[in-house]
Structures
1.
Amino acid sequence: MSAPGVPADGVHVFPSAGEAVEHAARALVAISAGGARCSLALSGGSTPALLYWRLAEGYRDAVRWDRVEAFFGDERAVPPDHQDSNYRLAQSILLSRVGIPPAQVHRMAAEEDDLEAAARRYQEEVRRLVPAGPGGVPQFDLIWLGLGDDGHTASLFPASRVLEETRRLVAVSESPDGRPRLTFTLPLINAAKRIQFIVTGMRKAAIVRKILAPGPAEASTPPLPAARVRPRAGALEWLLDREAAGQA
Ligand code: 6PG
């Protein structure tokens, strides 16, 4: 399974969700071993939760957590202890359990009234801590992304104006039910050195096919947000289980 811009060797189909998340975990092991600092962007969603659980159970010592600067690719406009908070998910399952220094966990303050200001501040935090590449845009070592049933990723939803952002790195967006969110924009995502989509389960098979094996129907409609994730110089990987790949 491949799509224009996604090399066939960038699509990995694993026998199970567990094996897909192991691949992602091993990528973090290798990256954190490679330098004094490692920038990582976490995602929300159910498959990342499986990855976080696995990292905490099996990779506490294998990952150099003392080197990891952990950011969030998106956040819902709720307090950090809210059940919908991506920070809460990652913090409770993973970050609080692996000994990462709290100062290296960078949550989006999406509970604030002024979300535009919160987005600007988060952008500054990213700029301060993540080294910029040739275009002056910070280059994350690794960004983990999920895929929504409608083709959204991070909080970049179909037909959203935020998809056309060319300058800002972090922006305010809205989910289809009208609830505000903060999200990385495409310029920031596509500057990354490595991006891994982690997508599992039968429910995702149809949308995965639309993105990785588009037919005539997809060719005549605007590309879905996840299909616009095309790192300019970095590597793009799709980690699928057999169900999400439509091979179950
Ligand atoms: C979020 C996300 C989002 C998510 C997908 C997949 O906060 O909602 O970052 O992009 O990864 O919606 O979520 P599921 O795996 O739960 O379907």
2.
Amino acid sequence: MVRQTKQTSVTVKQVQLHQYDGDILTLGLFEGSKRVPKEYAYLDKVIGGAIREVLRLGDFKGRANETTILYCPGRVVCRRVLLVGLGKKDKIRPAVLRQAAGTAARSANKLGASRLGLAMHEIAKSKIDIEAAGQVLAEGAVVGCYKYKDYLSDANGNKEAVAMRVSIIEPNAAAALKLNRGRKTGTILGQGQNLARAVANKPGNEINPPSLGREAQKTARQCGLKCRVFNDRQLAEMGMNAILAVGGGSANKPRLIMLEHKGRATRGKTGAGPDVVVVGKAITFDSGGISIKPSAKMEDMKFDKAGGCAVLGIMAAVARLKLPRHIVGLIPAAENLPSQTSYRPGDIIRTYNGKTVEVQNTDAEGRLILSDALAYAAKMKPRAIIDMATLTGACVVALGEHNAGLFGNNEALKKKIEKAAGVSGEPVWAMPSGSEYLEQMKSKIADLKNIGDRKGGSCTAAAFLSEFVGDVPWAHIDIAAVADTDTEKSWRGIGATGFGVRLVVEFMRMG
Ligand code: BES
Ligand code: ZN
Ligand code: ZN
């Protein structure tokens, strides 16, 4: 019954539109086009003027992600033409193209098609770089095709077990070459994002800290990464007492997963620390522990490992892209359950860097496992640390599901992350933190406590984390609101979003 989702492939095909022999040919069109663009004119003639007619009747307006399907009986090799709106010409951006490709991929999937053509000749009229277009089209298609269906039987709508073959259609040789360069990058990024989604979507009875460790080792083997998984005994020897405390209540013992990519330019270097350490919270299920959560929506707490899953996707992508950098991924993994062996409110933990923390709420566990992992990361003396975590409900309240919260101790680093977010289309919003917020986290009987008061919950959580990075430039991305969704969009399905994979890889690609 368990079925693996096969991967989507993307290629660039240098053919004329009417020669494409797939199941569906997608044509991107700007909003308000009254006439058939000249690039699509010959195809339209071959299919008997169907495009001209639909534009004339105004049934298709070209609004972003609007779709209309046209059937072409017997006239061309491809029997279906799918029109996808690109919105207003002056508003066209790579993000619009990415979504259009995702919308086309999802429409094709629903029809059971397995060969999808994408023609976006309209972009020639825009300022979008052709290579960038190839990248976002591949990203959109790969991400759009993904659906979590590991446990769906055929009778319940799992007919499409086929892998989608996507072709970007471009008759011009020079343009096809550029599209292909971007296509390679975009496919890897999309697959990295889907890997993060695939693991994050798995339920708590399948993914726990040890099985997440095995998942990381499998990815490392496939992509050529170094991987080390520290078990609970090793964590005890190292002094990772916060990770051990949080994971203490579960029979599935905690792990610290370390992945390493040493790109070519960095292999000879000795002594120098990594360029970036990316840290991701992986609570494989967060019940709250002894400070137990209410039952409503508790099932969504399987997504509390999304930060760690993003790190997995990022590391897979940087290895496949062969980025010339030294990058380390760290995934502290624990399951937060109430039991006889759980940590309790009132406990005091001596963390990896020696700072002590009074536990006042066992549901504020993310910052605890991160404290050990961040201190471990800082010890490597990297040029930057970026962490991603489904850390606070307060961030969900503050920003809603359209922005992740961005915190940190270094303005230049935050600026660069904002820039990468602009490229990847995963928006972040800069939030305050600092010494005033840190005051709220001081304990009377230990160096810190793990909750503040109700005020500024995501800012005080970030202030807590800042105590464990020393003076290393550090950014924290609170993905609590964006890591998963139950709102279906035309360009992507529900469940884990893989937020942060493209963002952090784009950050690393910026040099
Ligand atoms: N994993 C949660 C944060 C969360 C909440 C993520 C909602 C996604 C959706 C985290 O471990 C948590 O429970 N945080 C508490 C902290 C509080 C006890 C200070 C919270 O936000 O309520
Ligand atoms: Zn919690
Ligand atoms: Zn949590």
